[in-house]
Design brief:
183 residues
Length: 183
């Protein structure tokens, strides 16, 4: 292999790793979902706010009401959800009945935990059901990605596509592909 071919192969390989890692990270990262649940429990939303002087848009958390539970409750709830919304879960291969069973177990488990900790976690009884249903609905939607290996199959297809396209680019030369007719 001549030096130019070796350089293209090396560039292609490192580019392939970056694109694959980026695709995996994008599909498996649940931080934004957890952040959204936490923000909701704190009684806040993330809003775009335009600075009239600079015309720049910044994002800031704004209160829309009272927190739905105190810091201890939020910490415990987010800690639990962190385990449910992990990449090891979403890459599962579950059937409908398995998802339904997990959702049922989480629903009844969280209901008991919330009831037991109403006072310690500062949960208003009027908000109990909406908190529980919001979390359980989010879990159900998240787990639907595991139905018959849907997420892992889609992710594998995406990675294969990126690898294939990257290798094609590498075979004709990424720089050479930019300059048709030699530049």
């Amino acid at each position: 292999m001549d030096e130019a071919s070796q350089n293209r192969a090396t560039f292609s390989s490192s580019n392939q790793d970056y694109l694959s890692a980026d695709a995996v990270h994008t599909r498996l990262d649940s931080d934004k979902l957890l952040e959204r649940v936490e923000t909701t429990l704190r009684g806040k939303v993330l809003r775009a706010v335009r600075d009239h002087k600079t015309k720049q848009v910044n994002y800031e958390y704004q209160s829309i009401g009272e927190p739905l539970m105190n810091d201890l409750g939020i910490q415990q709830t987010i800690g639990f959800l962190n385990m449910v919304f992990g990449p090891q879960v979403v890459l599962g291969n579950l059937e409908d009945y398995e998802i339904e069973r997990i959702v049922y177990e989480v629903h009844t488990g969280l209901a008991g935990i919330f009831i037991h900790n109403l006072n310690d976690w500062g949960i208003n009884e009027d908000h109990y059901e909406i908190i529980l249903l919001s979390i359980v609905t989010t879990i159900q939607a998240y787990l639907s990605r595991t139905l018959k290996g849907f997420e892992s199959t889609n992710l594998q297809t995406k990675i294969s596509s990126v690898e294939s396209n990257t290798l094609k680019e590498g075979n004709r030369g990424l720089i050479g592909g930019l300059f048709k007719n030699g530049g």
